[in-house]
Amino acid sequence: MKKNLLPGAVFLVLLFCAFGRQAPLRRFELKGYAQGTTYSIVYYATDSLVSLNQTDSLLQRFDRSVSLYQPNSLICRFNRSGKGIRIDETFRMLINHALQISRATAGLVDPTVKPLVDAWGFGVVKATHEPDKEEVESLLRNVGAGKIALKGNFLHKTNPGVQLDLNGIAQGYSVDLLALLLERHHIHNYLVELGGELRVKGRKLGNEPFKVGIEGISGDDLDPAPMRKVIEPGDGAITTSGNYRKHHAAGGKQISHLMNPLTGYPVQNEMISVTVYAKDAITADGYDNGFMAMGLKRTLSFLSKRKDMGAYIVYRRPDGLIADTATTFFNKYQ
């Protein structure tokens, strides 16, 4: 006897359609305060899968590891120690990357730069005077990536005076960790920003790309001007280092917060700012200060050999006028 299969077939089709239909993506935004600045996250998902409590908790754990403003953080405990301490995974990742970048930049990026940062007035406790030549030479005895060594989870130092400052790379890594939190919740369209450091993936609603504005300099001073350039970065990270925001006056001249770990003195060259594009923010943030110290020619030469990173550079020409340039890799995203 022939059976009627139509009702069952209709049921299967309806079941397939019910499970195959996806809820539309919606826009969610989180805003908070961390690391002495603000952060913002925009993501697109079917529901509010990540909350402000989750992001705040992540950033608080991060600070307990590497914040110089928390006396009981691991990095402060290391700086007070005589021989070193056992560190956590966040600290270990940052040290490993910082040491790799230090080698790649011939020591112009150095995690042990804290004594110089403090002495020139940019530390947690402000210095009362500008260091003289003898003081700088004394400080340099405690500066150098070779004065620390990571063995397992124990970070060693050669002498008690060695102190770490990971601010040149830590903010970028915290942006990466926020992006990883989103990814773990299957969110693949987002923009994460913390203190101006960015991580972008996917697109906005309507398949519209994310656009990022890069601040410029106007005239002959160092006051920020309206956006100098707008790019569509695709999937990746963008960070900026510059001399025009963090500096103070001494002896009638502007002193940069960026230190040259090889000389012991603040960076002074034609560089005004450098915006770096890389696959992740720990890389972009880790290199941007190094490029500021390298100067224009060395930076362009260095990046000409890299296929995974690019930069947009604002600099002062020998005639005093402000100019800009971008590497081929960076120009792809304009």
Concise overview:
Helix content is 33%, strand content 27%. It has 334 residues and is α+β, with helices and mostly antiparallel strands.
Task: List the keywords.
single chain; 334 residues; alpha+beta; T-fold; 8-stranded antiparallel β-sheet; 27% strand; globular; disordered N terminus
Describe the 3D structure.
The protein has one domain: ApbE-like domains (T-fold), CATH 3.10.520. The protein is about 35% helix and about 25% strand. It has ten helices and 15 strands. Strands 1-2-6-7-10-13-14-15 form an eight-stranded antiparallel β-sheet.
How far apart are the first and last residues' alpha carbons, in Å? 70 Å
Rg over CA atoms: 24 Å
Low-confidence stretches: 1-6, 8-18, 247-252
Q: What structural class is derived from the secondary structure elements?
A: alpha+beta
What is the helix tally?
10
Number of domains: 1
Please identify which CATH superfamily we are dealing with.
ApbE-like domains
* CATH arch. level architecture: Roll
CATH class: Alpha Beta
In the CATH hierarchy, the third-tier topology is known as T-fold
Record the SSE blueprint.
Elements: H1 6-20, E1 26-34, E2 37-45, H2 52-66, H3 74-80, E3 84-86, H4 89-104, H5 114-119, H6 133-139, E4 148-151, E5 154-157, H7 167-184, E6 190-194, E7 197-201, E8 212-217, E9 224-231, E10 236-242, E11 247-250, E12 253-256, E13 271-278, H8 281-294, H9 296-304, E14 309-316, E15 322-326, H10 328-331
Antiparallel strand pairs: 1-2, 2-6, 3-5, 4-5, 6-7, 7-10, 8-9, 10-13, 11-12, 13-14, 14-15
